[in-house]
Amino acid sequence: MTATNGRVQLWIDEYAQAWRERDPDAAAELFSEHAVYRSHPFRDAHLGRDGVRAYWAAATASQRTVRLRFGAPIVEGDRAAVEWWAQIEDADDGWVTLPGCLVLRFDPDGRCEELRECWHVADGRVDAPEGWGL
Fold first, then answer.
1. Where are the domains of the chain?
2. Quick check: helix, strand or coil at residue 66?
3. What is the rounded CA–CA span in Å between residue 122 and residue 128?
4. What pLDDT, on the 0 to 100 scale, is given for residue 92?
């Protein structure tokens, strides 16, 4: 697919909804059968829809409340990048803040075939700086 801002924005909206609802099945459907999902630069990749589903089930299991924002995506060809900012109430750790970035590559059907994610974590709720995500 040649990604367009509208198609990428729709994908991001569905990804955000899956995260807020902590729905591993909905998340997995956004990815191709042979997707490569790299949740962190130093972790092994999660492979295929089953790998995405398993990762999401584990990663979101203790999340109670998810406050999530995405910035405006940057789109070029079949690739896109987008910032995100999450405040998560976790059953084990209380509130944490995770700002991060997704680098995405899409297949011709509009499913993600590669996701690379970088993020940081801070204890408590930290608001995004003024002008963030523009």
1. 5-123
2. strand
3. 12
4. 86
pLDDT tens sequence across 103-132: 999 999 999 999 999 999 999 999 999 988
DSSP 74-85: EEETTEEEEEEE
Query: Looking at the domain that runs over 5-123, which CATH code has it been given?
Result: 3.10.450.50
Query: What is the pTM assigned to this prediction?
Result: 0.93
Distance CA 13, CA 130 (A): 22
**Residue 10 φ then ψ, to 5°:** -60, -45
Return the number of other C-beta atoms located less than 10 Å from residue 37's C-beta.
22
Give the 3-state secondary structure of residue 6: helix
Contact between 85 and 132 under an 8 Å Cβ cutoff? The reply is yes
